[in-house]
Amino acid sequence: MVKNRSRVIILIDGSNFYFKLKKSGFHNLLDFDFKKFADSLKGKGNLVNCCYYVGRVRQDGSKKSKELFDGQQKLIGHLKNYHVRYVLGELLKSNGVYHEKGVDVQIAIDMVISAYEDTCERIILVSSDTDLIPAIRKVKEKGKMINYVGFSYQPSVALVSVCSESRLLTKEELEKFFVKKRAKPLQ
Fold it and tell me: Which residues of the chain are under the pLDDT cut of 50?
């Protein structure tokens, strides 16, 4: 049983999160209210850390890499506004396609470190990456709770079965985390 004021960390697999949101019809993370999201996930727990993991865009002189880099810089600024820590993995281009490398390893390391250094009682994992299962098992062996947060339209059955608890977000629930843009004032 988790204490009401248990220490909580939230770990968000950025690429996984972004593409799941996009499939749900949400395209602009700059309109996403990370504070409201974190508050809804942590419940009565004390949020110790919220971290967003994403591959680092490197510019190669192409228009696409510049667009990706500029977008990532805006996202990093947005995360900072919400006091969300970010960790950059690598984003490598192979045959014209970008692939993220090292992000799931960093998430796994941070989960295990948090469990072994006793920095929290509960880890909230916003990822559907089954490569994290060995780390999840280690976290649970240390007596920590690990909550899987996924998407109702495509849950990870494997993570639902291995995690302490699961929460599947619906499109209607996600809408609450997107800031409504105010109309521009008349000039």
Answer: 1-3, 182-187
